[in-house]
Amino acid sequence: MELQIRRLTGITPERLAGAPSPAAALRTFRAFVGDLPLVAHNAPFDLAFVEAGLRRHRLPPIGAAVYDTLELARLLDPSAPTHRLEDLARARGIDLARAHDALGDARAAADLFAALCRELCALEPALLRTLAHLLAGSRTPLGRLVLDCAGGVSAPALRRRALPPV
Question: How far apart (Å, rounded) are the C-alpha atoms in residues 10 and 18?
């Protein structure tokens, strides 16, 4: 399994030499994120690991909205042949040099989120109103996003923070 993970991510023991401990990395991450919304592709998968680590090290949970590009892509293009991050990014001209590289995936997810928000807000007004009606009671980030677009609020501007030193 370890070899499979190395091949998938490109992370080797040499790259991990001198890396902060998981507790230190989670503290830095939690401080960096604060209460800002997060964007992830297949967010529940990543959040499960992050939240478990935060609990283990007695750090506050993520309390902000988490936007899932997979969920949004499935809403906007349910019949796409695949909803993998690299395929969705490629279809929109978004650069993803190496899939499963954390920083590359994060940047691609941010760019994909922006593109999908533009696509969502560009839907026919009647369709947007119908989606907003269906999602009105959901109180999810996706529901809020649809309601905003239906109400004429433009796609959210992404503010990228400079990454903290590792």
Answer: 17
Alpha-carbon gap, residue 7 to 104, rounded angstroms:
16
pLDDT tens digits for the chain (166 residues)? Answer: 477 777 777 778 888 888 899 999 999 999 999 989 999 999 999 999 999 999 999 999 999 999 999 999 999 999 999 999 999 999 999 988 777 777 888 889 999 999 999 999 999 999 999 999 898 888 899 999 999 888 876 655 445 555 444 4
Work out the number of other CB atoms within 10 angstroms of the CB of residue 130: 14
Asked if residues 26 and 53 have their Cβ atoms less than 8 Å apart, the reply is: yes
**pTM of the predicted model as reported, rounded to 2 decimal places:** 0.84
Rounded to the nearest 5°, which phi and psi values hold at 39?
Answer: -125, 135
Q: What does the alpha-carbon distance between residue 75 and residue 41 come to, in Å, rounded to a whole number?
A: 14
